[in-house]
Design brief:
Shape of chain A: globular
Largest sheet of chain B: 5 strands, antiparallel
Helix content of chain A: 55-70%
Oligomer: heterodimer
Distance between the termini of chain B: 73 Å
Largest interface: A-B, 30 and 27 residues
Mean pLDDT of chain B: 87
Number of helices of chain B: 4
Number of helices of chain A: 9
Number of strands of chain B: 5
Strand order of the largest sheet of chain B: 1-2-3-4-5
Structural class of chain A: mainly alpha
Low-confidence stretches of chain B: none
Order of helices and strands of chain B: HHEEEEEHH
Strand content of chain A: under 5%
Structural class of chain B: alpha+beta
Strand order of the largest sheet of chain A: 1-2
Helix content of chain B: 25-40%
């Protein structure tokens, strides 16, 4: 089974943000704190799994000529349903995430996975790929959010208890009372800086790794 | 079945119809979703509104359900303002309504409560897009600044001193952000003037 490979692909090699460089608009817009990044990541993961599964189910019936409009309609419908459901029954969570949910429609990573993977895979594979890509996306968003939040406001996971419930209040941290942060990191330029530096770090790590072991054990197949 | 589909998939009529079918199914799913969630969303939003009304109106002002006692007042061709009225024994004790002003990065929406004599029972910023870390101190969650409005009226302080300290007024500004508090002061003052102008209508 290619479970390990799919997970590795989503989490590291072909990570939505750090590998494919997709969905950078929501990435830069919402990662002003670790909590925001986590919330956006989780909501996107839910939509990604559902859209991948549905597209894989429908793939035999979808004619290649009209596939893109079909994907767009399916994704937009799913996002709207998630939005309505959260608003109705998880209203507190919706107040925190509401702004981001509509943004998921324009997250090109979801259309990208529908096109590059789900439309060519079985339902199980597509769902797993959605999960792996979603977790990878969530990790990337949370990481960028934490970096920006720490250097921008001096806190980590501020207001996590609103998103995850009071049990998670322990996540909220302020590492030093003296450090209030550099505001720029929370503003848009900070998003570009954090993303650029993290990308560079990943590249540097991979370079070193490749040099230490010239023959790659898992050859990485680049996907469109 | 598979073979048939492959032939059909290339035909224009199949493509058009399949796209139409998907759109229809998605449309139906949305209609159903909307119907199923409408009541719950309406209720959740009413609870939200009631909670924010309670924030600017201390306990003891209302015996009635504010949400059920509202009046729409339009002034100077601007969109009508919904005024919620708190009553005790039929008499209006206070009114709660929204007011707004342009801040540094967009509209700032402020909810204020005003008692019969035109004194503020409270003010809260409902919505804003000010700079995080500088202008967002107008939120109750970030700073106590907004509480400084409670008890103020158009005669206390006098009209000329309804401004931030930098402009010779009574209200504090924040380090690095003057435009935001200036806008909130203006919004609250506008709200009080609105109340004064339409006092008869509101207290009816």
């Amino acid at each position: 089974m290619r479970v390990r490979e799919t997970l590795r692909n989503g989490l590291w090699d072909n990570n939505v943000v750090f590998g494919q460089l997709l969905a950078l608009c929501p990435v830069l817009a919402v990662t002003t704190s670790g909590t925001n990044g986590l919330g956006m990541g989780l909501a996107s993961t839910a939509v990604l799994i559902a859209s991948n599964t549905l597209i894989a189910l429908l793939r035999r019936f979808i004619s290649p000529t009209v596939r893109i409009p079909v994907f767009v309609i399916v994704i937009a419908t799913l996002v709207t349903l998630v939005d309505l459901t959260l608003n109705a029954w998880l209203h507190e969570l919706h107040k925190v995430l509401g702004l981001f949910i509509a943004l998921i429609v324009v997250n090109c990573a979801i259309l990208g996975r529908a096109e590059a993977f789900a439309s060519k895979a079985t339902v199980g594979q597509a769902a797993l790929d959605g999960l792996a890509m979603g977790i990878g996306f969530t990790m990337a968003l949370t990481l960028i959010g934490l970096v920006r939040e720490f250097f921008g406001a001096g806190t980590l996971f501020a207001q996590a208890s609103i998103l995850l419930g009071p049990h998670f209040a322990f996540l909220e941290m302020r590492l030093s009372e003296a450090f209030e942060g550099v505001l720029m990191m929370i503003l848009p330029p900070g998003g570009f800086l954090a993303l650029g530096l993290l990308l560079a770090a990943k590249q540097a790590y991979q370079e070193r790794h490749a040099r230490a072991r010239p023959e790659p054990l898992h050859p990485v197949v680049k996907e469109a | 079945m598979t073979l048939n589909l492959e032939i059909w998939r290339d035909k224009l009529i199949y493509q058009g119809l399949s796209l139409g079918l998907v759109a229809m199914l998605c449309g139906s799913a949305l209609v159903m979703g909307n119907q199923l969630t409408r009541e719950a969303i309406r209720q959740a939003e009413a609870e939200d509104l009631a909670a924010s009304l309670a924030q600017v109106l201390p306990a003891g002002f209302a015996e009635n359900d504010l949400l059920a006692d509202s009046v729409h007042i339009s002034a100077n061709h601007s969109p009508p303002v919904t005024v919620y009225r708190a009553r005790k024994a039929g008499l209006v004790t206070a009114a709660v309504f929204q007011t707004s002003a342009r801040g540094y990065a967009g509209e700032i929406l402020v909810l204020i409560g005003v008692d019969r004599e035109g004194r503020l029972t409270g003010a809260r910023v409902l919505k804003h897009t000010e700079t995080p870390g500088l202008g967002d101190k107008i939120e109750i969650g970030k700073s106590k600044w907004i509480l400084s409005f409670t008890g103020k009226s158009l005669v206390n302080p006098p009209a000329a001193r309804w401004a931030v300290k930098k402009d010779g007024g009574d209200f504090d500004q924040f380090a690095g952000a003057t435009i935001t508090p200036r806008a909130v002061v203006a919004a609250v003052k506008n709200g009080l003037e609105f109340f004064a102008t339409h006092r008869e209508e509101i207290l009816r």
